[in-house]
Amino acid sequence: MFQKPLVIVSGATGAQGGSVASSLLDTGLYRVRALTRNTNSDKAKALASKGAEVFKCDLSVREDVENALSGADIA
Question: What's the CATH code of the domain at 41?
């Protein structure tokens, strides 16, 4: 069975990242892991409701980044 590629979007609750994540989800061609520092924000919840995997990640913490990128096809 074909599995959609997993795309990592950093800053997914910001203006640019949010637009990218939403656009990717709207195509239906990708799984999206949306990286954010606050997984409880309204924007994070909106992305989750569209099908994104909302993932807590502080880009200044190496372990967070390594975990966030695990299994990614596109980052």
Answer: 3.40.50.720
